[in-house]
Write a structure and sequence with these properties.
Blueprint lengths: L1 H30 L15 H34 L4 H11 L1
Helix pairs in contact: 1-2
């Protein structure tokens, strides 16, 4: 049962992180005075803008996913009394 709970919790954290990251990038991009409809894949978009948006999006997504997953793991640990099994396995492998 614990693995199922962690899968749902971890997946939910990743989904929420993606939504938060996307909203954050859109807000930052607009505050920088850039067009919110810029498409990095469009060859008519300047390459500098496309790369800047790609880097900003990737960084925001990675940071949000890390923070939300850590928070989910901490909540799981507080509720169950131990880390989720996948994290325990990684921790044991790192210590070996």
């Amino acid at each position: 049962m614990g693995n199922m709970v962690w899968r749902v919790l971890g997946t939910g954290a990743a989904v929420v992180a993606g939504i938060v990251a996307n909203k954050s990038v859109t807000t930052i991009w607009q505050k920088a005075g850039k067009d919110s409809t810029v498409d990095p894949q469009n060859p008519h978009t300047p390459v500098g803008e496309a790369l800047a948006l790609a880097v900003l999006s990737a960084a925001a997504a990675a940071m949000a996913r890390t923070l939300f997953t850590r928070k989910a793991a901490a909540y799981y640990e507080q509720s169950a009394g131990h880390l989720p099994q996948p994290l325990l396995d990684k921790e044991q492998a790192r210590q070996a």
